[in-house]
Automatic annotation (TrEMBL):
The record marks 229 as: Important for catalytic activity. Residues 6-259 form the Endonuclease/exonuclease/phosphatase domain. This is Exodeoxyribonuclease-3. Mg(2+) binds at residues 8, 36, 157, 159, 258-259. NCBIfam families: exoDNase_III (TIGR00195), xth (TIGR00633). The record marks 159 as: Transition state stabilizer. Belongs to the DNA repair enzymes AP/ExoA family. Pfam families: Exo_endo_phos (PF03372). It comes from Pseudonocardia endophytica. Probably binds two magnesium or manganese ions per subunit.
Length: 274
């Protein structure tokens, strides 16, 4: 059964020594999308490079070209990509290591690190501009993928919780970036145009499952989290989803990121991917 996973690693060099390698082996995914890699190709740890070679995984990396040690997205895939696209034509973000798209047989997979915002600041204004430009691009990308006979999935850290069920303390976060009314309306617009929130489609009535917890206090221990790591898919792929899980660490001490990976297992597709 094909498996797609996404994880904000909070720095691939640090995560490699904390449990990332063991997770890659355990999840045994066909496609893994990574965010906040924070490394250029020559900075990827040797241990990770060796593991990928051993597992037959191809690494496609889009580092930040504007700030060393920041951002960066990657896709690991069992099949070597047929085509690679970095960015989506946004002059503010294309060089920041925020979006990477690869074409595989029957599937286009994208890794996204959507900007964070802070309510009432230029950071939020910048995030809003990203949202405004990204939505029409996604629709164009879907049309392109469909024309090439591919389904599409956009995986990553969206820095956006779509609904009350996606934030443990939603009442206290109504004015915070990531849960603002216009951000949630933007996400709802994607769904109205046919995109599918795969994890929510598998768990329609659940609180969460949360994928991010602040390091402050005992948020992780008390499961005071947010669901902001998503797999947004075209309907033809989403309908194949058989299981969706958040790979939550057993304890706070065993975390290798403030995010937990989100993994979806799909039934085999007629297109032959991966």
């Amino acid at each position: 059964m094909p498996t797609v996973s996404t994880a904000n690693v909070n720095g691939v060099r640090a995560a490699t020594g904390k449990g990332l390698l063991e997770w890659i082996v355990a999840v045994d995914a066909d496609v893994i999308c990574l965010q906040e890699v924070r490394a250029r190709p020559d900075e990827v740890p040797d241990a990770l490079t060796a593991l990928l070679a051993e597992r037959g995984l191809h690494l496609t990396l889009a580092p930040s070209e504007t700030a060393k040690g920041r951002n960066g997205v990657a896709v690991l895939s069992r099949t070597e990509p047929l085509a690679v696209r970095v960015g989506f034509g946004d002059p503010e973000s294309d060089d920041e290591g925020r979006y990477l798209e690869v074409d595989l047989p029957g599937l286009t997979a994208a890794s996204l690190y959507l900007p964070k915002g802070v309510t009432g600041t230029p950071k939020q204004e910048r995030k809003d501009r990203f949202l405004e430009r990204f939505a029409p691009y996604l629709d164009d990308a879907w049309r392109r993928a469909r024309g090439d006979g591919r389904e599409m999935v956009v995986c990553g850290d969206w820095n956006l919780a779509p609904a009350e069920a996606d934030v443990r303390n939603w009442k206290g976060n109504r004015r915070n970036s990531g849960f603002l009314p216009h951000e949630r309306a933007w996400w709802a617009g994607l769904l109205e145009r046919g995109w599918v929130d795969v994890v929510r489609s598998v768990h329609p009535d659940a609180d969460g499952p949360y994928s991010w917890w602040t390091y402050r206090g005992r948020a992780f221990d008390n499961d005071v989290g947010w669901r902001i790591d998503h797999q947004l898919a075209t309907p033809g792929l989403a309908v194949l989803a058989k299981d969706a899980v958040v790979d939550r660490a057993p304890s706070h001490a065993e975390r290798w990121s403030d995010h937990a990976p989100v993994t979806v297992r799909y039934a085999p597709a007629s297109g032959g991917w991966p």
